Amino acid sequence: MKIAVYGATGYQAGLVLAELVRRGAPVVLVGRDGERLARTAARLAAVPAAAGPAARPGGPSDAPGPSEDGGIEVRVADAADHAALTAAFDGCAAVINCAGPFTVSGGTVADAAVSAGCHYVDTSGEQLHIKRVFDTLGARAERAGVGVVPAATDGCVPVDLLARLLAERLAEPVEEIFSVHRITGGGTPSRGSLRSALASLKVIGSGGLAYRDGDWRSGAPARRTSVRLPGDAAPVPVVRFPLPEVVTIPRHVNVRCVEGLAEATLTARLSTPLPPETIDALPAGPAEEDRRAQRFTYVVEAAGVTGRMLRGVIRGRDTYGTTAVIAVEAARRLVADPPGPGVLVPAQAFDPADFLASLVPHGVDWTIGPADG
Ligand SMILES: NC(=O)c1ccc[n+]([C@@H]2O[C@H](COP(=O)([O-])OP(=O)(O)OC[C@H]3O[C@@H](n4cnc5c(N)ncnc54)[C@H](OP(=O)(O)O)[C@@H]3O)[C@@H](O)[C@H]2O)c1
After folding, report:
1. Within 10 A of 78 (CB to CB), how many other CB atoms are there?
2. Ligand 1 centroid, distance to 334 Cα (angstroms)
3. Domain check: are 205 and 243 in the same one?
């Protein structure tokens, strides 16, 4: 059961590949640069396969199965070459696409994965790419009998799943859901994250899409300007932010309004991005000790039509390491226990409580309680 990783030479892909190898999955490294791919494959071959519960969430039965040939294969395909991509994915059960910015190349890679009959996940945080995959690929994925889950990341998957649990617990039509992301520490983001932010600069500046009364709109005024986050004595200023879950949540929760928020200081920082040549000169991504020191808190709040409000909180560390675990776990579940085919949000593809439980050994915990009001 081979898993292809596209953009295999990148920083996030390195963590995804290490996670796959730790679980004993045969991997196919795919990208546009054969020499870089060969160097990545050589480094990966030196990673020992582990059998401990930390490497295999949920225990050994959770692993995709041992590699028959210790298999690490390399295949070269440009993101603009549909035939080459389809050939590169041939014989793979799933594709994990880590090549950002996704608004540039993500659509063609997802399309080719479907043509090759592979399940597909990606590590995109780019709202417009995610929306485009839902808008364009659904019918083809259904015909091909594969599951496509964009945004299999630390941010989107737990928030989308927790939104489902909140809605179930409210047990009434939902008036509003909002989420706020706070990330502290972690050193300088990866070059890929910075390039993706640069590619989405206008979208970030505008706040991206919000969901109102059955449709997604840009330019909608924020319904909130401050939120008290866990551990804070007072509310902090927030602004609308193009979070992926704004696209995913309305696809499985009967809700009137959804918006993504971020602390105003984050948007201000991202609005003055580093120039491309400065990004090129940075390290590929944060050092391991910085990743381990990083903490994230994602707050999801849901208000029912009667005014009852619940707050879910997800806490974890190491956004890149957590994304690697989530992307691999998502691909594994699509292959081992396929949901109905199509482009799916996390809560349609996976059992919410069960998937969240699989993240606990990786330092992710979540709570549901009353909201502040
Ligand atoms: N929570 C989140 O939203 C979240 C979390 C983690 C990661 N991410 C996203 O994951 C992505 C990857 O990040 P990263 O740090 O791994 O980036 P990176 O180190 O720059 O790696 C990017 C990879 O994609 C390939 N690539 C880029 N553009 C391509 C194109 N047009 N055609 C073919 N290949 C292309 C690169 O190939 P070459 O080596 O040939 O250049 C490289 O292998 C980013 O978009 C980041 O935002 C999101």
Report:
1. 14
2. 22
3. yes
Residues lining ligand 1, judged by CB closer than 6 Å?
Answer: 7, 9-13, 31-33, 36, 79, 98-102, 104-105, 123, 125, 153-155, 190-193, 196, 284-285, 319-320, 323
- Find the helix or strand (DSSP H, E) in which 45 lies: helix 34-45
Report the CATH number at residue 19. Answer: 3.40.50.720
Distance CA 353, CA 335 (A): 19
Indicate which atom in ligand 1 lies nearest the CA of residue 101.
45
For residues 326 and 199, the answer to whether their CB atoms sit within 8 Å is no
What pLDDT band is residue 56 in, cutting at 50, 70 and 90? very low
Question: 178: domain CATH number?
Answer: 3.30.360.10
Q: Is residue 145 part of a domain?
A: yes
Is the sign of the CA dihedral 265, 237, 248, 202 positive or negative?
Answer: negative
Query: Confidence class of residue 50 from pLDDT cuts 50, 70 and 90?
Result: low
